[in-house]
User: Fold these one by one.
Assistant:
Number 1:
Amino acid sequence: MTAAGRALLILPCLILLAAAPPARGQTAPADSTPAVAGSPDLLVLGTRDLLWIARVQQRSTRVFLRTPTTPFDLGRPFDDRVVRATPLGSDLFVFNEDGSPYRYQQTGLDPIPERILPGATIPLDLVGGDQEVYALVPRGVADALDGRGDVAPTRPSDEDAPPTVLRYDLREWEVLADGPDALRGARQVQIGLAQDRILLVWLTPAGEIQTSHRPRITDAEWTPPFTLAGPPARRFFLASADKLLTVLTIPERNGEPAASRLLGSLRVEGNQAWRSGTLEWSDLPEGVSKPAYTAATGFNQHLAVLAATAEGTLLRFARVDAAVAEETVDIEAVLSEPAAQHMTQRLFVTVTLLLLLAVLVGLFAFRRESMVQPVVLAPGYGLAPVSSRLLAWLIDFVPFSVAAGVMLEIPFSMAMRTLMAWGFSPEQNELATNETMLLWWGLSICGFTLYALIMELITGRTVGKVLTGTRVFSERGTAPTLGQIVVRNLMRLLELLPHFWVFGLLVVLSRNQQRLGDVFARTYVARRTPLLVMIDEEDDSDSDDKPSE
């Protein structure tokens, strides 16, 4: 089959794949059903620089993400019900309802399946480090993991056994230690990390909050339980705020929440490192009833706390012994996906599909011959190899994308990861409504296009083409006209949109190695070939020496 035939078959298929709906096990379609006020199916998870809100529904979960300087995005849909989750670096490590663990990356790429626990067990609690996860599981699960018994406890005396701490290094689960006997009968228990130590915090039947810790790997015993000061508690939340592990206590008698922070060193024997502090809260909207706090995490030196009220669910921020810099957020406004953003996304998708259709019609109805017919090569020149064209493009384009990132204070590596997700992942249409990313990529494309247009109009070549020894010619082998230069450069505004990257295959599939702009401008890129120049010079000398008849 000819190159033209391959192109005619491959390009439409690739475009259809780019627009295909997400597959099962990766992402789910958007669900506009609002969350119920005060619903337990809301998760809040955070690190110092990232904050996630997860709306968990019957068969899907949608996660909304923000940073200290950006609002919540439109949300990343998963097609499973998440029941347990923890930050893992800049990713999310989750357990779905069926017990399958996954790692979801911040950029919205496909989920990475992880090793399932015996019996597809969902941990009682878990916490993530930089590259490892720690989990609390029933004793029987730990026995099954290291071959000591079945998944379920085998002896009646083991039914109230304290849970076991496991560690997962993204390859294998391993048993670290059984929990202390003081955990027997605990009403609530959570696991945390601080100062290279594993900590357990639990609520006793009497309403006391106790804690114990031990080194991560060594076989040292758990420290004796330490009781945090304060009145009897109904529940508590364990979070890391401003790099300090913090316990947010909810009193039994509807009192005000209290906070204890881990200020001292756990390495000093007998040092009671927990200190109480005064909580400062972000303001509640006027007319809102007293909230009931349902979840908490740490974010940007704050505690981010879900607050359920009769009027709706809020995300309230608190700090210990410091002024609050964040404002209370209406969760309903975040989860409902504002209509204006929804309309922008729909309009973007519609315009993109129309442009794709127009390009395909124009390419195969009016410029089909460019795939088959050879161009007229200028004397001494051959078609530029793909590697030379790519190198010239990188030399010309990268400075503009880096400059735009510096102007908008976007790390170049993060911007490129998000851009790749936009171009190649099923969530690409949703990422397209990220105003910061659109502005960065728009500035990069427009700056590069204007530069290339001016340089080719004035000198005929960009800096990248000069360094790689390439030049633009008309398909007739002559210098391109003014109109051809304008067309081939303005087409860059379309070609560099992520949905149109598939047309980059034209450089490989077309006979004359033309990109989309070259096809419609009737131009090609060539590089001087020494062999052709030498042959041409020899032909000229032979004709001069040949005697006339």
Number 2:
Amino acid sequence: MKKILSKIGAGFLGAVMTGASLLVPVAIADSTANTLADYPAPFITDGGTDMLMVIGADASPADVLGAVNIAVELGGEPEGEPVPTGAATTAVTGGEDKEISLADSDLGDFGTLKDNYLAGFKDKKITWNGEDIDIEETLSLDGLSILTSADDKNVGSDVYLGTTTNPETFIYKYIIDDNDFNASAVADSSSEKLTIELLGETMIVTDIDVAADKIKFKFADDVVLGMGESTTVTADSTEYTITVNSIGLGSVSVSVNGDTQIIEDDHNYDFGVVTVEVGSILYTDDTESRQTKLSVGSDITKTVSSGDSMEVFDEPKEAKDAEWVWHVDAEADNVEIGAKYSLDSRKLDDDIAPKAVGEKIELPNGYGEIELSELTAVADLKYTFEFKEGNIDVYNASATSTKLYDNRNALMISSGEADTGFKIDSKETDTVYLFEGNDTTFIGLAYEDGDNNIVMSAAPNTSESFILDNDENIYNATYNETNSTNVDLNLTNLLSGLNEEEVGIDVNVHSVKLGSNEGDADANEIKVTEQGASATSIGTYDKSYRTYSGAIIETPEDNGDNDEVVMYIPEEQIKAKVIVSGPGTEVTTTEGDTVTPKVEPVRDNIARMDTDEGIESDKLDKNLILVGSPAVNRLTAAVLGVDYPTWGSEWTADENLSAKVPISGEGSAMIKMVNNAFGGGNVALVVAGWSADDTQAACTALQQFKKEEYGTYDLTKENVTVSETTVKLID
């Protein structure tokens, strides 16, 4: 307690009562369903207060001291978690990263990635049939795409990594390309079998059907055993013992963990998890010298064709359900074996949903990944398009004492930034107007000049342009010439390569509405044209729309119902950063500089008496902290639904009152959160005790609400009973 008081200063009591500066933390308020677990919200929000502390005019000084304790705690709250002030940096070693335009329909810019881009990918020679043959691994991302609301309106303003209409061109290949290689000669013999490392797994190829583009794999370990000899294998985390009991001329008796079967030469038996195949038998008259070659594994052989599910890499059995399927393309001296993506991932309701920022698509066996790492910028400057009906006065720009038009209807476009956001007539301004002339047959252009004057930009009957500017020239805004009905306001992107992007807004200044219907959005009142495509009508979209430049048109339907348009534009073209990793890639992220959010002092009066003038209206507009019981605080009595004053001896003797004021008796108090206390959606926090000392004890409990995870009481409900003894335990 001494530490906090010394921080705030000896003059704090006066500050509470007069509204002097009080430090408050940043928090997030939700006044619709608050419990004590949300405290200090909703009383502290966004670095400022949204509260009024009310003390009974007839209360004891102990109530005032209790209120001071609560206010001291709020003032002593930490400023908030540090927030980054500089961008995090990502270093990619042994991988490839690019910034991709939101307009790109595929990631073809990456080209074909090989070992020189992806660490762990191979470009080397392997030995087959006594020859050194060339192999390499490649990855193509042609089948992947950056997705925005232009692809699926349900994604809103988010950006995703998904597929194009040809997902199978997202493909990994293991390529054998060597004149010394003969695919048709590959067989299950010691010299001609082909051992490859595919997607990080060692696999044995025992046959390549060039004509049919089929590959036969052997998934087993070979072992040679004599009669009575054993070997062990581990499958599904269980150890199995394989024992050869006897060897006959054409069959072998084999036991696996005590289960015995006779297996004929060149046949196999499935023991459940483990399959055993008899590959060959060395039969002699001397039983001790007899031997058999066994192949032991979970699957002995499998033949695959292009388009088959990659079951061996844990894909579903049916190819139609598999995310990855086999790729096989075989010629005599050139063979491609690999994995290609199979499912559409273009819309949020697809079986495989697109990946959001920070999410990844993995190759089979985790052999690599493609991550949508981040967006390169944010759309942070808000532009609001709204109508002003009959209250715009326009003056001459060169002689601002001369009024040209008064009480005009206008479309006001504001940036929300002081004196900036637009360029017009070689000047910067934060607000632009399209206004109607006297006879409602023309539309003029005006802007605020920095001295709170709305001045004419161009003479009536002349179309003029202005620029939406967020450090860079982003959109050029033009409108069609004089029109007695609707005006087409066109925003054309000025960014290099994106100047085909256009946002068209159907504005009727005279009727003060967007589109055809006032107060009711229609599809055609906002149209977006991207990269030479036909216009998309988005006026009735219920989610925000992200343009290819990265600008956001916020919830068109909701705003359109109010005849408004809200846009957010970036300082520069927003791109999606994509990182491609191989099995040996390292990605490290270094956080930027951070700063603890500034704590703003309170400028309003946060403490009132329950008899102060205006308290009846204040209780409707503010979240309240009510200190004192219904015996001394009129608002406490009102919010609990009891008469004022109601003393402790009265509520404990009356069951109805006891239900409303759940205090058991002397030495107890309550902390109660009441949602929608006086209407209007605000909350009231009641801190009240049987006596003034009990009220002060409850205030101390609230002051120490974080101590030892709520101390000995559960401050996570809507109502908590606190005893003076409890408070002493956490002093």
Number 3:
Amino acid sequence: MDFLTLASFLDVLATTGYIFLVIIGFTAVIFVHELGHFLAAKYVGIRVERFAIGFGPRLFGFKRGETDYCINLLPLGGYVKMTGQEDFQLEKGAVPDPKAFNNKSVGARSLVIASGVVMNVIFAAIAFMVVFMCGKSFHASQIGNVTFDSAAYGVLRPGDVPLKMDGDDVGDQTDVMLIPALHSGKEPMNVLARHRDGTEEWLKIDPKAAKGGMLDGLKSIGVDGDYRLVLDKKLDDSEKTAYEKTMKKSLLSGDLKPGDVIVRANGQPVEYYSDLVNLAQESGGQPITLTAERKEGSRTVEARAVLGVELAGPSIPEFQLLGAHPRMTIEAVQPGYPADGKLKEGDVILRLEDVDYPLFTNGDPDDRYRSPQLMELIQRSKGKEVAIVVDRYGERKTFTIKPKTWFYKSDVKLGIGNGVYSKIAALGQVDDNSVLGKAGLPSGVTIFAVIPTTQPTTQHESAGLPATRPSSKAATRPGDLPLTWSQFYQAMRSAAGSTVQITYQGGDGDIGTITASVPPVSTGWANSIAFRPRPLLLDPLVRTYKTNSPLAAAWMGTQKTGRFILQAYVTLDRLVRGDVSVKHLSGPVGIAYGSYKTARSGLVDLLYFLAMISANLAVINFLPLPIVDGGLMAFLLYEKVRRKPVSLRVMQATQIVGFVLIISLFLWVTWQDILRLLLG
């Protein structure tokens, strides 16, 4: 057996082991639920004919007393079969069985029905307790980056730590995502944040629907977690290529290696990625000089590098420089999709069908999802061929591509990832009613020079921005290098309150000039464009929950269980109200895949995931829907109040309706799970 064959064999063994752990974990969750029914039934004197884990044909088991204990073929559920549980009425002349479920009091039957849910809650609390005794790390709540044009932009800054949101304590990034997603108030959220200087401040943030990603359509404030400035050293051989590729894109010079610790940036001490984000914006997009420390044996040596800075957001209506939008570029091409073999990473999009320089959004302020204009044009094709023109290293190329359609043309894809072209100030669209549009600057030109013609009348610092000087690289004649976006931005910002002459070159090579009046910085225009450091592979800043005290762990486990139960009920409320789409629910496929991924992360992560599933299962099982425990409890409550059971006809009808609804939801969420796995 050669090395590759052995490695493949070991990988299969590992995968099989993870799947086995998942099956064992789900079996445990189901077992404790059915155990609750079983123990309560025995306690009130109901005969239990079968205690089964799984459905389908019986594989093995044993019989003790009047109960058959067995494992069935399909480990996707389980049941406890009690005498009389399915007998809605006695046959004429039949003698009531005192050990039958339907002959017990309403209180006894309620105890049996509720015990399964109670056991799920107990299991979740105990599992969380074990997790916190072992120690569980979460991405810390400290903010690493604030997405441009998000709800938090201009309110929170990188490096801030949210302490309370919407009345709830914030522990980690999970809370930072979930609390806004579940916010239903018409008023903005109250957020208590601790700033980097140690001061605390109450802020108001109004969450808005996220576009794309795992939070697509859910309310979000648009922040990401922070990272330690330690280059990820937990890289195996399969990830080294990705690491080197990322470093090659991000570093303009220098050589950083996994394990290096970045200690200074532009000569200033730094500790977190958020420090680099703030520097990138404060310096107006200039590259950042990094100094890192590296352990070599018993000594520490310094490593230096220059980190590139790029435009930080998409070309949305608010993301522009006095009306000038950046061009879109292709950041990735998905293998096997129509664009594969034609379009390439780094291509700059010049035209799609009849639209020059398509924007990231359609410009419709009423579109809460702010759908990309490019994506809308592709969707509009309904799978028919589209013409796309790109610039590839200065050469104009035209392609005709037939998009791939999914699921009756409801989803149409080329297979490309989009970004912002930020190397040079090559403009896309220029808004007609903007400062530069009214001055006559055409769309699609490249900026070569910005020369002030009058003295500024306002101070740049009035908006909290550092003073800058016009770029020394500004050129005024053909053949010189064009400005970068950073130079273009800094030149305009330094000329705030004055008049400038802008020299540009069109696509045909002709040189033109315009004269424009730059508004004072105090009008806020300088904040309509943002810069960020190019991505680095860093260690996340984590918060670890761990205690050696069983009592403390039990309290933490109880709190976490209550939190998940409350979140489940709030989520269901949002579903009914229409604030949350059913597409965010997961069925068996999604849960199984999620548990498989957590199993690969370790037993503690798997146990945490199963505890979360158990807490949510308790909520779902106790909803007042026919064929689940909550529906049976509703029937018993009716019987207690009316002093007679629900009629056979009503019970059968509601159970049929409930079965159809639950199966429909089951099929829908399973379909959504498959879409997520296929489409990413």
Number 4:
Amino acid sequence: MMKEKFYVVKEGKIMIDLDIQTKIDTSTELLKEARSFYESSDYDESERCANEVLTLLDKETERNDLGEELDIKSQKNAVLELLAHAYNRFATISSSRGDYTLTLSHAETGIVFCERIGALYRKAGLITIIEGVYSNLSDYGKAIDYYQKSLAMNEELGRKGGMAYNLGNIGNVYRNLSEYDKALEYHHKALAIDEELGMKAGIARHLNNIGNVYAELSDYAKALEYCQKSLAMNEELESKQGVAINLGIIGLLYAEQKFEAYDAEKAEEYLLKAIAINEVIGDKYHLYWTHKRLADLYEYQDRWKESHVHFKKYHNLEKEVQSDEAKKKAELIEQQNLLLIERSHAKATADILHKVLPSSIADRLIKGETIADYFSQVSILFADIVGFTPIAAQMPARKVLAFLNYVFGEFDRICESHGCEKIKTIGDGYMAVAGAPIECADHAERITLAAMEMMGDIQLPEDIRSSLPKGAIFNIRIGINIGPAFGGIVGENRFVYDIYSDSVNTAARMESHGEPGKIHVSEEFAFHLQNRMDMVGDDLGGITFEERGEMEIKGKGMMKTYFLEKNV
């Protein structure tokens, strides 16, 4: 006897397709497996499970006999929700692999399904993933803005798990900005929520993040305490990636000579274990840094042969990872440019682009070009207002805004007059570049002249000066570096032209490790500028170089740096 295709639920009189229900039940189990595989860092198997869901349900999305999309009891709603869930899993996998283009593509597809069924909780999670891309691209201002919006959405929905994830990500952004008090505040809030929910994966993540903050604060004992707790939980969860990250950090802590618990044998043991796991799961990023940490440890012990082996592995992997990252970012930029062009009308696009982008970039976008450029050499400047946070804390908001607008307006004027390009501002920080987006041979001279004028010629108007707290002194600090960089458009609706590379990171370190009222430059920049001055016979009005000597630069190791001075 043939089995009937439909049966009726008496209470609601809902027609049920038995074949579809089987697919729904199977997909639900597959997505549970996908999550389990993901949490154990088996991304290939997690992806396979999610792909099976697409195979089962993708062809059912446009059927009209499965109930209403917005009816949470209908099979149509269940199908669309499971597909949104599957694309959420794809997005998290792509994000963990560092594939920004796929992350955005999967997240945006998932959001489309969410909007069809009104699944705000899932949409909030997907938006959080998209925001993580901006954080990975070091667009911290935008990342915090979006995380805060997503946090508000999760709070409205009462979605505590999403809130914890948002808070943890905000904490990571503040750590990257070296605002450690705020970082700890957000990480502890996230930890408290996940402890309340019993979310072990979240707890492990937050414990590790807190340990990282304490490590950067040189509180090695607390850092070790939190990282060991995270390690125990990740081992319980069988999260290979989490365990490898914990082992690497703990190894680094034991290798820290300033730590009273310094133990070279333990450091070696933990670092070797981290390397072994990272090789298995293919995490090249953490693998190359762990090789570097082990090479440094062996060098300190005069184990030169072993140090050389690991330093060579670090060097080769670093080049490979940076090449992969550059490719991924270029692909992301290309995708976002296409979206930008497709969604904008010609005149409106032209007007907007010329307001927010360098003129040459705006013109190229309007012509339909993809903006993903490589510059073999540019000069990068970072400047910030010394003591801005305590000064701003004692001023009305409108006065703070007037203060920043005036200073940055002067910086904009100076950069334009010397042929430099403002890139962005983050809080009281200002970034500019010479040699991009239009290449030029004299980029070092341009950025130097701009820095000198910024440092010496800005005078605050009386109404702004009088609003400063009593005893406050207006001063700025500038850092400059030179090197290769990638340039392109980042973002979609709130897009910006940005420059990124390790050279940019070094320029930021020059600023953060500088001194008030001084221009702090790398040895590479000083060498290049001196050669340029000698070649063209121009001392730029009396520029001299004051050697600062070698110093420890966060994230870079020992570097020789200089202060640029001008003879009076």
